[in-house]
Write a structure and sequence with these properties.
Elements: E1 5-8, E2 15-19, H1 30-38, E3 42-46, H2 63-76, E4 82-87, H3 89-101, E5 105-111, H4 120-136, H5 139-149, H6 152-157, H7 159-171, H8 174-184, E6 201-206, H9 214-223, E7 228-232, H10 239-242, H11 244-258
Helix pairs in contact: 2-3, 4-8, 5-7
GO molecular function, one term: hydrolase activity
Keywords: Hydrolase
Protein name: Alpha/beta fold hydrolase
């Protein structure tokens, strides 16, 4: 699988691999990639299979498939080990990769994500949404999601963030997004595997996140021994874009404290 990706920062620096959520692309991580690269890290941000510039003919893409793609990319870039971070679906892909390949991971970032299974209604909603966006495209779906993706404060004060988020969602290839929704509906429960994570872990969540509220982050924090929990006040589901300064400070402090130096 050939993934489109950006590779910033010095090649000799400690590697950080950041995984975007649904229905976004690698530009979601641009503020963090630029900040970490300036600090001396090597930062790799791929477009997942079926998103952004990465092609796919899948009709259903499991999270294990996404995780294996990332391992193949890391092998291609000769990254024996790396800091791994993901947001929302990206965080679930990170949990899948950590379950299968924890020895490759130096430290983890789990942002605005949820380890458990969907309710039957939520599972069916993913399947129904996949059918809908395949038929009608992403525009209406994106417009409906936007108020839940970012907080009211962000929409009132950060038109640049709102425009970026809307563009990513509207431009997402509908077939790839639908395939991911179908695969995600069948994902395993990652909650029992969290206790096996033995690397430094940062759990971040926006205080106003409607999709994965603070209680979900607290659950991960309780299950991952020694993890750090940071709540970004005033942010919704995308604190890395809504409050990038606070998010970047939390991440930089965590990387310093975890020993993941450039």
């Amino acid at each position: 699988m050939n993934l489109a990706y950006d590779d910033l920062g010095p090649r000799g620096g400690s590697a950080v691999l950041l995984v975007h959520g649904h229905p976004f692309d690698r530009s979601m991580w641009r503020p963090q990639a630029e900040r970490l690269a300036a600090d001396g890290f090597r930062v790799v941000t791929p477009d997942l299979r079926g998103y952004g510039e990465s092609k796919s003919e899948d009709t259903k893409t499991g999270l294990d498939v996404f995780a294996n793609d990332l391992i193949q990319l890391a092998d291609h870039l000769e990254l024996a080990s790396f800091v791994l971070g993901g947001l929302s679906m990206g965080g679930q892909i990170v949990m899948q990769l950590a379950k299968d390949h924890l020895k490759r991971v130096k430290a983890l970032l789990l942002a605005d994500t949820f380890p458990g299974l969907d309710t039957p209604a939520a599972k069916q909603a993913r399947i129904d949404t996949a059918a809908r966006i395949t038929e009608e495209g992403m525009a209406r779906y994106a417009d409906e999601l936007l108020p839940k993706m970012i907080s009211k404060r962000t929409r009132a004060t950060r038109p640049d963030v709102e425009a970026h988020v809307r563009r990513m969602m509207r431009d997402a290839p509908e077939e790839g997004a639908a395939a991911a929704l179908r695969g995600r509906a069948e994902r395993p429960d990652y909650t029992p595997t969290l206790k096996h994570i033995d690397v430094p872990t940062l759990v971040v969540v926006g205080s106003e996140d409607e999709f994965t509220p603070v209680a979900d982050a607290q659950l991960i924090h309780r299950e991952v021994a020694g993890s750090t929990l940071v709540v970004i006040e005033g942010a919704g589901h995308l604190p890395n874009l809504e409050c990038e300064t606070e998010f970047d400070e939390a991440l930089s402090t965590f990387l310093k404290n975890s020993g993941a130096t450039p």
